[in-house]
Give the backbone structure.
Amino acid sequence: MSEKISSQKAMELEKKHGSFNYAPLPVVLAKGQGVYLWDCEGKRYLDFLSGYSAVSQGHCHPRITKALQEQAETLTLVSRALYSDQLGPFAEYATRLFGYERILTMNTGADAFETASKLVRKWGYEKKGIPAGQAKIVVCNDNFHGRTMGAVSASSNTAHHGFFAPILDGFVRIPYNDLASLESALQDPTVAAFVVEPIQGEAGIIVPAEGYLKRAAELCKAKGVLLVADEVQAGISRTGKLLASHHEGVRPDVVILGKALSGGTLPVSAVLADDAILSCLQPGDHGSTFGGSPLACRVAKAALEVVVEEKLAENAQKMGQIFRSLVRDFGSKLITDVRGMGLLNAVAFAFTDNDQANQFCLDLKERGLIAKPTRPTVIRFCPALVITEAQMREAVGILQDTVRSWEKKC
Ligand SMILES: Cc1ncc(COP(=O)(O)O)c(C=O)c1O
């Protein structure tokens, strides 16, 4: 058992010795189970952040924890310089489940985005015949693919471009949900890929118009451009289907997965593609000491089995509908929009600034519900997919009480 510590002390230590790259909600969590979290003093919360949508199977899912424990006592890491008895079975299971010929396992979501970026560039040179050094990747404004240099370079956040300059060349940014801009960007024969989030998560849960992804896939196909779906946040059943792309019947050429691939236990990410694409990466082109470790593979297989066997897509679909319809029924002037799919949802508020959104989340936390703003006036609500209707109604009740108390103030 680790030593007990008060919330106050934990925050002091983190402030004194930690880094400043996050602005956490002032709550110190010490335990999690399913959709619940407990702080150091034992207060219980409904977790609607779920580790930024990673803990889809619920905190400390017994089956995933068991796989983690057993494998941790058996073999954790050999590196891909050697084979392990876990990577093959996981790769077989995952490729069958998602319907691709091959999988490349990495660690974080950003890591997988980097992998996909390298992969499509090399594919562009070797298979499409793009002249050396000219491959381009089309991305969308307000995208979020992580925090590495590649992801920062792809991002339309120009403040970050300035902070971390010089950024990488070769990303072409177009507006999201805009097929005319995509069609025009794809006229350039040096475009290797279009990388897109089927639903933009960090941008504030932006669901594109019906038919967008389907038509984008057709445009890419017509121009010999790879369609890469970043499903790190929306994938693995969070939106009510195994992949968010499936809502439009789209099979992207490349899929990027992360977050829920390990049920939030350890960083596991992956890139899925068919042989003609993924075989472009040969020994020495890419890798990672921890990517595809026996521990990661064992846990990821268990995490996916839980999603399938517990029918989490169906539950996400059902619970998401309940959430959105109950919140719309508040009929509150404070709420300007309720949007999302499955359990990837956001509520937009008539706040004047980010301080109000933060204060609102503090009020939610006091009442026992954890959520965070994703944009200055938008709060994301993404519980674990194992949530029950009673738990959902309890959370919506807390949200309603908080909305009513703010209506009196505003
Ligand atoms: C769509 C998408 N891609 C990539 C990432 C980066 O994942 P990670 O934080 O694991 O690097 C995120 C994280 O929120 C994401 O939402």
Summary: Residues 62-309 form a domain with the Aspartate Aminotransferase; domain 2 fold (CATH 3.40.640.10). The chain has two domains: 7-57+311-409, 62-309. The pocket of pyridoxal-5'-phosphate is lined by residues 52, 108-110, 113, 144-146, 197, 201-202, 230, 232-233, 258 (CB under 6 Å). The mean pLDDT is 97.
